[in-house]
Amino acid sequence: MGAQIAPKSPASHLRLLLAQRDGPPILLGGAHDALSAKLTQEAGFDGIWASGFGISAVQGVPDANILSMTETIDAMAGMAAAVPEVPMLADVDGGFGNAVNVIRTVQRCERAGLAGVCIEDNIFPKRCSFYDSVQRALVPIDEHVGKIRAAVATRKDPDFVVVARTEALIVGAGIEEALRRARAYRDAGADALLVHSKRPDFGELREFAKRWSASGQDKEPDGQTQHCPLIAVPTTYGMTSAEELADAGFRVIIFANQALRAAVRAMRQVLADLKREVRPAAVEGCIATLPEIYKLVGVPELVANEAEFLPTTPKT
């Protein structure tokens, strides 16, 4: 965890974290529903990544804009309500359409209690960055600049964070194109830049961060530093530590889908064991106890509220 702070809202909490230029990297854990959000909070992450990949997966569909804006943000609203003390960054793909759709997306996300949005420059409908069955293209730079400008202009809370994400490296457009897009998105008002890669090593992103810093792209025209932190998602280059990423210039690290993948493997194993053994005791040693679940979902608070507010005399 980073420095302990007492912000006024989830958005101000996330903005304060992003403003910290020194110290440990900011760690966001990926969650896909309210229960996984609670577990991410319990683990002590600085914030939560509301994963579009994960939300799609728990509905049994690919990460390809199959779920609507309403379905996606309703799921995120439930997650944010479950952990109101933790800032949650919403993965809203490309904003569910053009800049006009982005306006409504930001309005809905703010009302849902989310701390910010991450908007990517994939064409609509998007495909998960790691799917290899479809050749993807990016929207033109000016179109995505319009989306970022619309998001910034729409937010009511000035602390609400707008992250611009470029998939230039994902589609093989190269580092120079990634730099060009990152520069344009920063100039459009993005508060942070997520630069995605599906390489199995960190070399490509290390070179991006080096060139970004060396080219002075984090400077205003008057020479003053404009703080626009870089974000990495080390899904495919998993041997790279958060400390190594931070040393290279990435301030925020997102562990996007590991909790979901762990849950799938654990459930598959337990269900196979139950089917084979046909008795619950066969899996008791590798599953959470009922009291653990009760605590996670707030049963102790329920019992306390019943004792405090429900009538104690029996009905006649």
From TrEMBL:
SUPFAM superfamilies: Phosphoenolpyruvate/pyruvate domain. GO terms for molecular function: catalytic activity. CDD domains: ICL_PEPM. PANTHER family: PHOSPHOENOLPYRUVATE CARBOXYLASE (PTHR42905), PHOSPHOENOLPYRUVATE PHOSPHOMUTASE (PTHR42905:SF7). Belongs to the isocitrate lyase/PEP mutase superfamily. PEP mutase family. This is Phosphoenolpyruvate mutase. It comes from Aspergillus neoniger (strain CBS 115656).
